[in-house]
Each structure stands twice: as structure tokens, then as C-alpha cells.
């Protein structure tokens, strides 16, 4: 497994990710049996997780994307969130599942939930691959959580640092010193 210089260590390897993604897909498939999901995924970080999750879902699902931006430095979100790309479909009356890469302060997800809730979905739940509970500033409910991780900046499996490292097949901790 190729580990770039800037990655201090592998936090979650490929096999562990694959196993947990299958478990999450099974749980979601059970809970939504007989229903059709509308999956809303924020670009870009969730794309790899979403692709793997979808492959294992046993309920029909449509997907749509939003793009959210937060002001501030690359590793320190400032809390002010805005939507730079909206959904192309209506969520009214739909069973909506937000599929997120990582919940950090909770500001991004909190904002998205607020926006979606105003559009009257039949139901609204959240599936997040990673969660840094120690960093939470805004309370958000995560119904399906892949892994709780420590307060470290992680990259890989879709997650970036300045648009790099998304392609890594594992989740690694970014080296901050040096
Ligand atoms: P929040 O609004 O603070 O919860 O931040 C959520 C967003 O910040 C995520 O969707 C990611 O795009 C980004 N983010 C937070 N922590 C990390 C990390 O450790 N690695 C890469 N991106 C992160």
C-alpha cells in the first residue's frame, strides 16, 4: 500500500472500510425496505464512500449532489457555510438520506439539514462515514455512523487536503509537522 510522505499513518485500512460500508448498507437497506431513497451527497468528499455504499444497497435509490463551502483555512472551518450548488430535484415527500464523508464541528451538516428540512421531505436521516465527536460545536443527529475518530485531520477515501490525497484507498492521518 502506497503511503505518501504527508500521511503520518493509516487510520482505517481498505478492508476495514469495506467491511463497515457493507454493514452500513445492510442496516440502511433493512430500515428502508419497501421504500425508495433519495440520497443527497455533498461534493466532493463523499463521492467514494457514496459509490461503495450504493453498490451494496438493496433498496432503490436516486442520488443528487450539493456543494457546500465554508469560509476559513483548509484545516480549520470557520463555521460560516453557504451552498454553492443546489440539488436538481425536489425533496418534498421523499425519504431523504444525506450521505456525508465526515462530521467535524457539525456546522456544514447542520446547515444542510436545515435547508432540506424546510423543503418538507417525508423523512430525513444522515449517514456519515467518519465522525469527530470531540470537535462538535453544533448538535447534529447522525443515524448511521461508520467510525468515530480522534481529533486529527484525515485524508483519503475521498477526503482531501487542498484537493490532494482523495484517491488514497484508505483513511490516513495528515502529517502536520515538517
Ligand atoms: P464541519 O462543518 O466542521 O462539520 O466540517 C465538515 C467538512 O469539513 C467536511 O465535509 C469536510 O469537507 C471537511 N473536513 C472536516 N474535517 C476534515 C478532515 O479531517 N479531513 C478532510 N476534510 C475534513
Radius of gyration: 16 Å
What low-confidence regions span 5 or more consecutive residues with pLDDT below 50? none
Q: How widely separated are the two ends?
A: 22 Å
Shape: globular
* Helix and strand composition category: alpha/beta
Strand content: 35-45%
Fraction of residues in helix = 10-25%
How confident overall, as mean pLDDT?
94
By DSSP (H or I, 4+ residues per run), the number of helices equals: 3
Q: Count the beta strands.
A: 9
CATH class: Alpha Beta
List the secondary-structure elements in sequence, H or E. Answer: EHEHEEEHEEEE
Number of domains: 1
What does this molecule look like?
The structure is a single chain. This protein has 3 helices and 9 strands, in the order βαβαβββαββββ. A hairpin with a 2-residue loop joins strand 3 (61-73) and strand 4 (76-85). Helix 1 packs across helix 2. The mean pLDDT is 94. By secondary structure, the chain is an alpha/beta fold. The protein has helices spanning 14-31, 47-56, 107-117; strands at 7-12, 37-43, 61-73, 76-85, 95-103, 123-131, 144-148, 154-155, 171-174. The two termini are 22 Å apart. The longest helix has 18 residues, at 14-31. Strands 4-3-2-5-6-7 form a 6-stranded mixed sheet, sandwiched between helices. The chain has a 3-stranded antiparallel sheet with strand order 1-9-8, covered by helices on one side. It binds inosinic acid. Residues 45, 70, 77, 101-109, 153-155, 159 line the site of inosinic acid.
Amino acid at each position: 500500500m502506497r503511503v505518501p510522505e504527508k500521511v503520518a499513518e493509516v487510520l482505517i485500512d481498505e478492508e476495514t472500510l469495506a467491511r463497515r460500508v457493507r454493514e452500513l448498507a445492510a442496516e440502511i437497506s433493512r430500515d428502508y425496505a419497501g421504500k425508495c431513497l433519495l440520497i443527497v451527497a455533498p461534493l466532493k468528499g463523499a463521492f467514494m464512500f457514496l459509490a461503495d455504499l450504493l453498490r451494496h444497497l438493496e433498496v432503490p435509490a436516486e442520488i443528487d449532489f450539493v456543494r457546500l463551502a465554508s469560509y476559513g483555512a483548509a484545516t480549520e472551518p470557520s463555521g460560516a457555510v453557504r451552498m454553492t450548488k443546489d440539488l436538481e430535484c425536489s425533496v418534498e415527500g421523499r425519504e431523504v438520506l444525506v450521505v456525508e464523508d465526515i462530521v467535524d464541528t457539525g456546522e456544514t451538516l447542520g446547515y444542510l439539514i436545515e435547508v432540506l428540512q424546510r423543503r418538507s421531505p417525508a423523512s430525513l436521516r444522515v449517514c456519515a462515514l467518519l465522525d469527530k465527536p470531540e470537535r462538535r460545536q453544533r448538535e447534529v443527529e447522525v443515524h448511521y455512523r461508520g467510525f468515530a475518530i480522534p481529533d486529527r485531520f484525515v485524508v483519503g477515501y475521498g477526503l482531501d487536503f487542498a484537493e490532494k490525497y482523495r484517491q488514497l484507498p484508505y483513511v490516513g492521518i495528515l502529517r502536520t509537522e515538517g
